[in-house]
Amino acid sequence: MLGMSGGIDSTVSAMLLLEQGYEVVGVTFRTFDSIKESCLAKEKGCCSIESIMEAKHNAEKMGFEHHIVDFRDTFKRCVIQNFIDEYMSGRTPNPCVLCNSHIKWGELMRVADEYGCDYIATGHYAQIREQDGHVFLASAVDTKKDQTYFLWMLTEEQLRRTIFPLGGLTKDEVREIARKHGYEKLAEKRESQEICFVTDNDYRAFLRANVPDYKERVRAGEYIDAEGHVLGKHEGFVNYTIGQRKGLGIALGHPAYVTHIDAEKNQVTLGSNDDLYATELRFKPSVLRNYVITESRLTAKVRYRSASVEVTQIKTLPEGEGLDGICTLYFASPVWGITPGQSVVIYQNDLVVGGGIIL
Predict the structure, then answer these.
(1) Active site residue 196
(2) Cβ-proximal residues to 248 (8 Å cutoff; 6+ apart), any chain
């Protein structure tokens, strides 16, 4: 079963799977529908009805069956609600991680079983590797497109039934395959890096429209410095993210960055760029291959576009005081912009051996 968005990656994945002799069943899922012109113009695969029909057309053109399944209720409950809850708690969520785990693998695996499919495949840039009897997520050949940061939550059981046809290819090679098969327009189609259900990439407007008591919960508060001195007024803590510099609406005579957000006190701490560097973080691990992480050098990344940094130690905190299962991760050198709610993904060479949500 191949998850199809109507875009180039899943379409080329279908071509490759067919060439390799697989029997392919295409599926496109509805997660969040927005038919505003701004959404359709950007051809965002998760919300555009046009993209859904394009996926169906491509499947028919290549000669295999295609189904449209409705995951909107599950998506709203698992992904959108988490997105809202995290922002309203002063954290910055990563909805793609939950979507991959709960929707693209959780729900899609169930549908694959219904249609008698042995494997599921997607157009993600990642690889799967077996080592010492275990199956690991591994980085893609194209390091610029590698998407393991968003896939770390997949279980070993899910990985055993997964195929990533594009993992060994570069994006340029994928575009060339599309051209050779007559999909010139698709090869030139630009990609969106935005969150599929947040139109115009404005998460603040999304929260205002989807949190019933938004006006009561989001109100003006205090900017403070690291010592607690009041610097001025802000427009409500949800309007800010760690590392933000622009749009603060305050002049201090020097560059100011958001370094901490306290939702309970409705306070936003401002500091310098240097204040955003740290050498440790706490996280709640969802995946941690203990039989691997003691064996060799580890690295970790805290943002999709950031570089991996060497890890010196991962320490489980003592039980009790609400800290059960929480770990502290120590970096060999300072890391910029560690953000609660985002993911920390742990690598051993190119294998993903752990991951969790930053606390």
Answers:
(1) yes
(2) 223, 234, 240, 256, 258, 270
